[in-house]
Every structure is written in C-alpha cells, then in structure tokens.
Amino acid sequence: MERPCVRVPREAGEETRQALAEAGLLDDEYEIVVEDGALYLPVTDREAASEGYEVVTRDVPVHDTQQTPADRLGFDPSYERLGDVAIVDEDDPERAREIGDAILDSDLPVRAVIDRASKVKGDLRVRDWSVVARADDGENDRPVTETLHREYGFEYLLDLSQVYFSPRLATERHRVTEQVAAGERAVDMFAGVGPFAVPMAARGATVVGVDLNPVAVEYLRENARRNGVADRVTAIEGDVRDVAADYADWADRIVMNLPHSADEFLDAAVTLAADSEGRRPSGSRPKADDDCVIHYYDIQHEDDPFGPGERAIREAAAPAGYDVDVLTRHVVRSYAPHELNVCLDVRLSR
C-alpha cells in the first residue's frame, strides 16, 4: 500500500525511528522497508514529518501479524491517534460508528474512538466530541476523552473535551524547545497542558505558563510533575495581560502560540521581555546584551504570510525602545486553502 515514508540513510535508521516514535509520527501499521542503502519509515502525518525529514510516497507492506481497521472495512479510513484515543472526522454518524468499531476490533492500542462534533470555539479553544465506540476496559470512571499522549520523550495527560491540544504541532514544538538554554527564564503565554513549558523546563529553564482555562492549568501542573520539572514550572490561571505586570522585564524567551489573535497580546509580551541585567538570577546564563526571543505564531494569506505579524511586532516594540531582529520566518503548516500557519522567531533588544 502506498504510504508517506521518511527516507534516511540506513546508518541513521534507528536514531530516526526512535525520534519518529517519540514524536508519535511512526506508523506502526506498516513495515519499515530497506532498499538501496536507504530506510523507508512509514509515518502518520506527512506534513509534520516533512518539517525535519525527506518524505516520499512508496509502497510498504502492512504488518502481517497486525489486524488493521482497513482489514475490517475493506477501505483505509482516515483517523488520527492521540494516546489510546482515536479521532475521526465524519459527517455521517453511521459511517463514524462503522469506522470506530473497526478501529476497536483491530490490533491498535485504542480504548475509545471519538468524532469531532464542532469546530474549536470560545476563549478556551475547546470543541465538542461524539463518542462513537468505546472498549470495555474496566476504567469507566475515567473520562472517555482523557488520554496520555507521548511526544519526544515527554508525556502529557489531557482531556480533549476540556482542553485544546494538537499533536500535529509536535515537530514545531520540538524545533522551538531545542533552542532553549539552561538558566533561561521563559513565559508560555497560552500554555495549555504544557507541551512547550515542560520541555523548556527539562532543558533547564525556569518557566511561567499562563492559560485562561482552569482545567488546562491543572493538567499543566500534573504534567510538570509527571515529567519531573514541577520545581521549574509555575502555572498561572488567568489572562496573560493581567499577569504581565507581575513578571515585567523578566523573560528571556516568550512563546505566543495563539495564531488567530496573538497580535492582541503583543503589549503584554513587550512588558514581559527582559531588559535589565540586574534582574537576572545568580547562575543564569550570561547574555551579550539585554534581549528577549519571541516565538510569534500567526495565520495569514499565502501572498504575505509574515508581513502582518512582523509589522505588528515592530509597532508594539517601538514605544518601549526595542529593536526587532527577525531571526527566522518559518512556515509551520498549511492551515486552509491559501492560508498558512507561520512562526516568526524575533529578538527584541535595546
């Protein structure tokens, strides 16, 4: 069956396999193929995998010993997995139930199948779900939409009906958190359950994570404990615009992953940005100058995906006397026809 596959030299195969598995991108329904000195590793998400690897389409065999949903249905259904929950997006409830039953009857480690029942909505960025199939797993007191997701060596407990979470951003989160150095002070302005905050803390940063959603904040605290970084993560429930004054001139790094409206929070980001060497804690990393790196996410038309965000950042930074240096203009993924989800990595300095 033709599937998207990451192609790497054979000697890099095991390292790549482990990285894809940790990111939740390795498609274990299909065999890994070796041919002409290269390994072809099937992946579940072409777009996410292509951020760090060469992705090609090729024929790969299904695991002989594994019963797949396609074996039950006679066609290859569209779904994604988040921990032990499978997610479908079907308009026809009968078809959704048919796919859900096939997923549960397969050899996939799935205990529930849920169908998107609404778009992401409201300030808390949650959506409605319909449960189309559920295994009798003896955990009836556990919310059917709660799952444990593993990503790049970290694990995140979350309830999809109560919080926003996108597994498709795993590669992007890894790209950002790999830039963090020990001793930094970081603010995640829209932290959710912690997929930026936890890895930044694991790299030695002191992290403040803010979110309006009280359930997300509780999961953030739990995930900080699960991953052994609770002593370096402060989770705050509230609007970051109200919190910013308490951490004025504090942050070496800021994550602004609210792409539809991040521009409304730029004044708060400028307030948070560190500008005084004297405010740095003892033992923190030395810096050549007073600056702050901001990872600013935006969704714009493909004709000018970076311009609106860059202009908004400069307009917010200028009154505070900051120069803006654009470090990276990065396309994260396609969002809709002719619209791109992008990230601007910028440095504010005086």
Automatic annotation (TrEMBL):
Residue ranges occupied by any SAM-dependent methyltransferase TRM5/TYW2-type domain in the UniProt entry: 79-350
Keywords annotated in UniProt: Cytoplasm, Methyltransferase, S-adenosyl-L-methionine, Transferase, tRNA processing
PROSITE patterns: SAM_MT_TRM5_TYW2 (PS51684)
Biological processes, Gene Ontology terms: tRNA N1-guanine methylation
UniProt GO cellular component terms: cytoplasm
Keyword Oxidoreductase: no
GO molecular function terms listed in the Swiss-Prot or TrEMBL record: tRNA methyltransferase activity
Protein name in the entry: Class I SAM-dependent methyltransferase family protein
Species for this entry: Haloplanus rubicundus
